[in-house]
Amino acid sequence: MEILWGLMALLMIGMVVWPIVARRRAGIQQVHAGHPDAADPANYGFIRQELLDVRMPGPDQDLLDVLDVVQRTQDYRAAQQLLAGTEADGEVRWQRVQAFAGAASLELAQRPGGVSDSPGGQWLRVWRTEAPKDAGGAAVHAEFLVQQAWRTATPGTDEFRIIMEEARSACGDAALLAPGDPIPYIIELSVARGLGYSREEFEQLWLRILDRAPAHMGAHLAALHYWCEKWHGSREQAYAFAEAAAARAPQGSLLAAMPLFAVFEHLPEVIVVQGFYESEVVTKAMHGALYAVHSARPDDPMLAHVRHLLIFFLVRAERWAEAMNQLVHVDGHVGALPWTLASEPASDYAIYRALAVAGYEANGGSPATLLH
């Protein structure tokens, strides 16, 4: 009987998976110049997998240069100067604060320190000691604590709560040093999720952010997590939050792409419905994101984030040409959703890129027909 049940289970799995596999295989086999496996991303000028930068979603050479100096010399002053010269309420400052905090956190993980050597990330401790009134250093320290909590402790444990409470206090200190700066409050959104703020507490925090930076995409993405089903909300609440943000988005704002992020956060672990990625909900969210991309400033620092997520959905929906059009804008950097959720972000990205190239060529595309 157990063997019979096992065979029936295998048959049911096969009935679900085979149509998806067969459909993809049929679509790609249309290529006329040899087998689709021969499609080479390098023909489109794409970067080799081992050279893909997993640190950021897009280029920020000033940040990379400063990170190199700070990590090589263990002198914080270059980071301090860069943040001081970065627009206070913009997306770039938020990304740079995250990058500096992440660098310090990774250094500490790689070099915890001991009797004979100092711990990694020592430059951040020196920064806070020598410049306690510096708003940039205070924000980086608060974000560092948040990342440490998620990286080193398990949500719900005493260790996690202790680190998050320290981060909450650090956010308050950073906010006092720069009253108009939304960054300390954006950092606290992650604390709110980790500590399980009540709805009233969260709404008060969110209003402080809206008062300072109402169209901040990074803030909206951080807040979306709180409303997700896996944290303190539901699918309906997350969709409502994302759709409200899209509805009030000013012209040229990437907030119109928020529903696609809400859809991504609630993807089922196993998709058994054929055509899921062509469904009305997913298609509508993709179209909103495509509209946002086409309307945004070319130098919008959040543009790469939206393009990367679009690649994921467009490939799943077998919209090969549109996926390729996004790839040519972001290739080289993979530090964004959905790739950062994988243990090997560059590998996951490269798989989707290869599928896009194969599908594009299977339907008559070539390097000559791809618009840059």
Which helices and strands, and how do they pair?
Elements: H1 2-28, H2 61-73, H3 77-84, H4 91-110, H5 122-130, H6 135-152, H7 158-177, H8 183-195, H9 199-212, H10 217-227, H11 235-247, H12 258-265, H13 280-295, H14 303-316, H15 320-330, H16 345-362
Describe the structure.
- The chain has 372 residues and is mostly helical.
- It is 63% helix and 0% strand.
- The protein contains 16 helices and no strands.
- The radius of gyration is 22 Å and the shape is globular.
- It starts with a helix and ends in a 10-residue tail after the last helix.
Quick recap:
The protein is mostly helical and 372 residues long.
Considering the chains and any ligands shown, give keywords for the structure:
372 residues; mainly alpha; 16 helices; disordered N terminus
Q: Write the H/E string, N to C.
A: HHHHHHHHHHHHHHHH
Oligomer: single chain
Biggest sheet details: none
Shape, principal axes of CA atoms = globular
Pairing-aware structural class of the strands and helices? mainly alpha
Low-confidence stretches: 1-34
Q: How many distinct beta strands?
A: 0
Strand residue content? under 5%
Helix content: 55-70%
Q: In angstroms, what is the radius of gyration?
A: 22 Å
The pLDDT mean sits at: 88
